[in-house]
Amino acid sequence: MATKTLRIEQIGSPIRREGDQRATLIGLKLNKLHRVSTLEDTPSVRGMIRKVHHLVRVLDDAA
Fold first, then answer.
1. Please, which residues bridge with residue 61 across strands?
2. How many contiguous H segments (helices) and E segments (strands) does the chain have?
3. What secondary structure does DSSP assign to 21-43, as a single string?
4. Contact at 8 Å (CB) between 42 and 14?
5. Predicted TM-score of the model (pTM)
6. Keywords on this record (predicted)?
7. pLDDT per position as a tens digit, 7-22
């Protein structure tokens, strides 16, 4: 069975944000606007997305 993945796009700037939010974006492999990252759908990734939900957009659930 293939693992589920999520495609995430950064839509907000980390400027004037807390350091932990900037580090979370880097952990999601995002660090510039409109960059897209494909990550495995795990509870830890979901938690990271929840932490910076105002800076990212989940594009779709890729199979």
1. 6
2. 2, 3
3. HHHHHHHTT--STT-EEEEE--H
4. no
5. 0.87
6. Ribonucleoprotein, Ribosomal protein
7. 999 999 999 999 999 9
